Amino acid sequence: MSSKFNQLNISDVSNAGFNFKQSILICSVPILFFLIESLRVNSFASLAVIMMHHFNINAYLYAKISSAYLWGNILFLIPFGILLDRFPSKSIIFTAVVICIASNLALGLSKNYQQMLIFSFIAGIGASAGFILAAKLIKEWFPPQYLAFMIGILISSAMVGGILAQAPVLYFIQQYSWRMLFFLLAALEILILIMSLIFVTDKKNVQIKHSTQQAIFQTIKNFWCTIKCPVNWIGGLFASLMNLPVTLIGALWGQPYLQTVDHLSAATASCIVSLLFIGVIIGSPVLGFLSDKFQSRKLFMILGAIISLILSLSIVYITIKSITILAILFLLLGLSSSVQSLGYTVVSENNPLHRIGVAMSFTGMIVMCGGALLQPYIGRLLDQNRLGAAESVLQYGAVDFQHAFTVFPISFTIALLLVLALWAKDKRVR
Fold it and tell me: In this structure, are residues 224 and 353 in contact, taking their beta carbons and an 8 Å threshold?
């Protein structure tokens, strides 16, 4: 691997004229947008039992609703990334939030499974702009020494959404209804829309104007440079594999798993799953800070993969009767898997500002593919040998979940091998 990937290409932003309060205010809008969209996608875990019975569908079909959202993300991350490198951030976030508001209202009014599937996909389209927009503005408005920490904060904001999607959402839909949840999300995003019009702006000195012909050429060049950079692939694949506890346990199957295998109530299960998100909230900025301090991404990524592997084996294959121990294991898994944020950091610091939209969207696409492919796959594994013989009987056994959750130790092993095999070739890689 060429040593040029070790050079931080983030000299675009310096300490000169840096205004911390202004930067925080500008970046807080897309971060809040990302938080709300995280709440929406992770709420499918709390909605699982209610909506499976409401629409009379099995685990595989229900997982397709959640994965449709992720596929909307995947297919439109690159287009939004290209647009973000060409047009003002205010225009991009305005368009994305309007799409999300409309899709939330439509989800709340959906009358059948097919409508839920379509509107979930549309919601994913709008949400695809959230992360890359926040990542671009962070790189644009913060100097290099803040980069890993701020991306850690960005990842943590998604985990806050994940926590709110557990017990709070479960309580909300029990008191009101699942339809009211989507209406509430639409109302919150109307506030985000207003904030984006007031606060979001780009630095004037990074706006580059091209003719139409130059713009097309530059877009193709940026995309080609992005996909041929090994660091972008490594960072994206690593982040995707380490993000699986969030997309598979936190966003969808965590509560049903704990209720079935450990015989916990829905409320207790949601609280334990919340600890997974709390672990990521704590771990992402802390690991970002430590990796900056020790000037090493690789060391923390390797340690995170090893610890996550050990924890996943313990959770899946060891019968744990203590709620306290379960809670600790989920918290630790969140802490260890939070090294996913370093995958994003590596990509961000090894791409110039004029290419950051495409680079981060490419990384996000790889990350989302993991959840989009494996959410329905786990649903299919659960349906293969479920206890209920009839389609309307939705019962799953501990063995079914244990079989399905083997994806975690396998994924963490691949993440570890990926870092060791590809990065050990060049000792200069941090």
Answer: no
